[in-house]
Specification:
By secondary structure, the chain is mainly alpha-helical. The protein has a domain at 5-144. The protein contains five helices and four strands; from the N terminus they run ααααββββα. The chain has a two-stranded antiparallel sheet. Strands 2-3 form a two-stranded antiparallel ribbon. The longest helix is centred in the first third of the chain and has 39 residues, at 5-43.
Length: 204
């Protein structure tokens, strides 16, 4: 079974995006755990359960935004820094809330306040739920659709047979009918006029 070239390209781009997201998430996870344990050690074992985790989450979120915007989702359309950053913060606040809920249930409901219990609830279960939510929300709300670039080959034409690359075309422009995804650069924005063809009659 042969996959359509468009779907295969989308799958390849999505796989690369997921891999970069995983790398950034792993590094942010290290930042989160390190900062959380440092804050818990600084504040003591009897106090600062939620404060230490909240501080570490802010540090990890800041690192994650910079890395994801400049690396993971660099190929996606930028919809404005204010809107983008606001949605990013809101999504991460919701993910942090999931982690804090897991920690609160462990400490205050189950009565488990050991360092191991706090790490398992906040940094394993909570982070896993938050990561899944972040990946879905980033693609859905935060970062814009991918910017597509199409390459067309010119054969024995005025371009000397070199491939012609069209500029970035957003998914929004394609959906609105402003750009056709397979249109040649020479034909975009113009109409194709056909010259009348004269046919020779038989016997003339």
């Amino acid at each position: 079974m042969k996959w359509p070239s468009g779907r295969l390209g989308d799958f390849s781009a999505g796989a690369g995006e997921f891999a970069r997201f995983g790398v950034v998430g792993a590094l942010a996870f290290v930042v989160d755990i390190g900062a959380a344990n440092a804050m818990w050690a600084l504040l003591g074992e009897d106090e600062g359960h939620l404060t230490g985790k909240a501080v570490s989450a802010v540090m990890a979120t800041t690192f994650s935004y910079v890395a994801n915007r400049q690396w993971t989702y660099r190929h996606r359309e930028r919809t404005g820094p204010l809107r983008e950053y606001t949605l990013f913060v809101l999504v991460n606040m919701a993910a942090v809330l999931l982690s804090l809920c897991c920690l609160a249930v462990t400490v205050y409901l189950l009565g488990l306040d050991s360092l191991l219990a706090k790490n398992l609830s906040a940094n394993v279960i909570g982070v896993a739920l938050g990561t899944a939510f972040r990946f879905w929300a980033y693609r859905r709300w935060v970062f814009g659709p991918p910017v597509r670039t199409h390459t067309h080959a010119a054969v024995d034409g005025p371009f000397g047979g070199r491939p012609v690359t069209r500029g970035p075309v957003t998914e929004k422009a394609i959906k609105e009918g402003k750009e056709h995804p397979d249109a040649h650069p020479c034909h975009r924005g113009s109409r194709v006029h056909r010259l009348p063809v004269r046919t020779r009659g038989t016997g003339r």
